[in-house]
Structure formats: structure tokens, C-alpha cells
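Posting for a labmate who doesn't have an account.
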Amino acid sequence: MDSIRLRTFRVENIPPGTTAESLKAFFYTEDQPCTEVRSLVPAVDSYELDIQEYTAKGTFQAIQTQQTVTSPRTLDDTISVDSDFDGSTPLNNPQGPIAVDVIAVTGLSADAFGSWAHSPRDIWLRDYLLKDIGNARVLTYGYPSQLHGNSSKSIFSDYSTNFIHRLLAMRESAKALCDINGTVGRYSTRLKVRSIIFLASPHKGLHTAALMTLVESKPTENMIRELKAESPTLTELNDRFRFVAQDIDIVTCYETEADQDCK
């Protein structure tokens, strides 16, 4: 039933000193018993470098009233709640020096949290991967790539440029914050990309005929055209990538049997 379904949400701009329990006080009283805070970690997109804001991820048991409530409602408009997970979302806070950032970038028309989640409460990037890489900072990265109901006319170069700028800003702001707090050395700024793991990435393009019928005359039409086999965009990417990937360890994972839904 929709009235008992667990929904996942994110809270940003949380002030310093807030705990998982005290965070609930920012929400409507009737929403608090339905809210569970699963993680509360330092934000990576803080604009005030002398203030360490926090980001939280939690689950909410949807409430069926006159209008379905799918995420906790806030009493304080200085914090923000969403379920899109666009941009960078940190999932943990390593206790020691951060050796590596693991950034999971979602695919086309996918959910930046759900793509990596076992359930609304569990996400393997945080709950399982960190058992093997304890000193890693793990983040998800999402962007508005939905095919339906998406008013964005952005193409893949727009999304990739935005991602790179956010990544560099994240690392620079983290280093500056450490300088201010007197803990220089905890973060390394402008870390090189060491490894890339591709999961079912269509480097040579897709058969886009079926997708084109879904997006024809819609804002996302140009983005799907870029995925067509031998499109100018993919051809240029493949030509340029070999010059920047010489020192990067690359692993490509793909299915060898057709999924039932794809047959």
C-alpha cells in the first residue's frame, strides 16, 4: 500500500552541531515518528567555507491524508529536503585521512540513490563497500536525465562539464575548510582520477529507434540522438578519451545474456 511505503529523502544545509535525533526537530511534529535518519555527514557543497554544514539521508514512511505526504515537511526554510539526489550526496564520513573519493555517477533516466540501493534503508555503496575500503569517502552523483517530464534541453557535454566543475569545487572547498579549521592534510586537493569502473556503459552507442519514439519533439530528444551508434558526440568522446586515460585503471562490466525485459 502506498500509505506505508518507505520513501528515501535527502536533507541539505543542516547547521553545525545538529545530531541525527535533533534533526527531527526541524520537521513537523506529526512527521517525526515517520522519519528515520540513516546518515548525517559533512556536506561537500558548503558555500560558507568557515561553516561546516551537513547533509543527511533518511527514510520516511509516507502518510496518507487528504494529500499523500512523501517526505518530512520542514519548519525551518533554511534547510532543504528533496528526493531527487541531484548533484553530489556524501554517504559517509571517514574517521581518518581520506585516501580516495568513490563517486557513483548514475546512468540515463536512473535514480541517483535507487540505482545503488538494495532497499530504501540500505545502499551497498555505504553499507557494504566500505567494509573493504574503510578510509574512502563515498558519494553519489545525479543529474536530471529523466526522459519523461524533463524540461531540460541539456546534452551530455553540459552534464559532464557541470560534473567536473562540481568535483573540482568540492575538493577545493574541502581543502580550504581544512585550512581554516587547522587540519591541513586531511584532504588532498585536485586528486587525480585513479580508476574508472564502467557498468554497462554504451561506449559505441545504442539502438535508439525505440527511445526516439518516446522523446520525439521533447526537450530530451537531442540527448538521445547523441547516444545513437556512430554519433558525432560518441565518436569524438572515444577519440579523445584514449589520450586522457593512459594512467587510469579501467574496468568495464557488462552483461553477456539478455535480460528478460530486453528480449
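Reply:
Got it, the C-alpha cells are right above this. The beta strands are 6-14, 35-42, 54-61, 80-82, 87-90, 100-105, 136-142, 195-199, 249-253.
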